[in-house]
Automatic annotation (TrEMBL):
CDD domains: Aldose_epim_lacX (cd09024). Monomer. One of its GO terms (biological process) is carbohydrate metabolic process. This is Galactose mutarotase-like enzyme. The keyword Calcium applies.
């Protein structure tokens, strides 16, 4: 476990899955990340790579060759090489090995860079293609934030405030896949009130958010967070049934549609990276 710390915040990150385990403010004493209770959901902030969401029949194909991957890929369950750059920065790297090549026939380098600045924690995804063919992948985040944050508040006291959307269209999930069904959520002054029933049918999946910041706030006190993301074309919001958290999930990639042909190159949102090229995306959370 690596500890990052500055004058206002301290963060713990595990080498397994390069997973954030806590974000604690020295100013408020609060841990803003979910506690990882396995009775509901035993993860904290899994890294999604090389696929996001479910594959149709857990299978994808490259031409005539077909492979199987679990929902959200394998990176979240693998041991990363961990390097502490400084008191406020750490780098976690993962490359292909004999086991990954059996299920994902690509050379790759995936790096997660965490850095503190004031009351903010940034997470940078860096993907490099060291191979001689196009690298096809998806990558994204799945951080779970504690709701409620404080003892005197309840889940229903909290809301998500969108920086630019007045209403949002979400795509419904069917057997871990993106269905043809959509629904509209009307936002009251760009606010979505949290309630457990929002997630009884799985995640809310968005393809066309205008917002690049979603804030978690409540009606009882001033504690919360700002979650910022840029150039992620898809976004998920989810919680396990009746669990005390909400996941804010920026994605470059998405689950298969129910009618997908299972060809990886045709997968919606798939990133194609040429040999020798690099790819980077960043999300950031500021706590208050």
């Amino acid at each position: 476990m690596i500890l990052l710390e500055n004058e206002t915040v301290k963060v713990l990150i595990a080498s397994k899955g390069a997973e954030l385990r806590s974000i604690q403010s020295k100013l408020t004493g609060l841990n803003y990340l979910w506690k990882g209770d396995p009775m509901f959901w035993g993860k904290f902030s899994p890294v999604l790579f090389p696929v996001i969401g479910g594959l149709k029949d857990n299978t994808y194909c490259i031409g005539e060759e077909c492979y199987q991957l679990p929902r959200h890929g394998f990176a979240r369950d693998m041991e990363f090489n961990a390097e502490q750059i400084s008191a406020v920065e750490a780098l976690f790297t993962l490359t292909e090995n004999s086991e990954t090549l059996k299920v994902y026939p690509f050379e790759f380098k995936l790096a997660l860079r965490y850095k503190l600045s004031g009351s903010s924690v940034s997470c940078t995804y860096e993907v490099t293609n060291p191979g001689e063919k196009e690298l096809l992948f998806s990558a994204g985040g799945h951080p779970a934030f504690a709701v409620p944050l404080t003892a005197e508040t309840s889940y229903e006291d909290y809301y998500l405030e969108f920086s630019a959307d007045e209403s949002v269209v979400y795509h419904e999930i069917e057997n871990n896949l993106i269905s043809d069904q959509t629904a509209i959520l009307q936002l009251d002054e760009r606010k979505l009130n949290l309630q457990h029933s929002l997630f009884y049918n799985d995640a809310l999946v968005f393809k066309d958010l205008k917002s690049n910041t979603i804030s978690l706030k409540n009606t009882k006190n001033q504690h919360g967070l700002h979650f910022r993301f840029i150039a992620f074309p898809f976004f998920g919001i989810w919680a396990a049934k009746d669990a005390d958290f909400v996941c804010l999930e920026p994605w470059c990639g998405i689950a298969d549609g129910v009618h997908h042909n299972q060809q990886l190159s045709d997968k919606e949102g798939i990133v194609s990276l040429s040999p020798g090229q690099d790819w980077k995306r960043i999300w950031e959370v500021e706590v208050f």
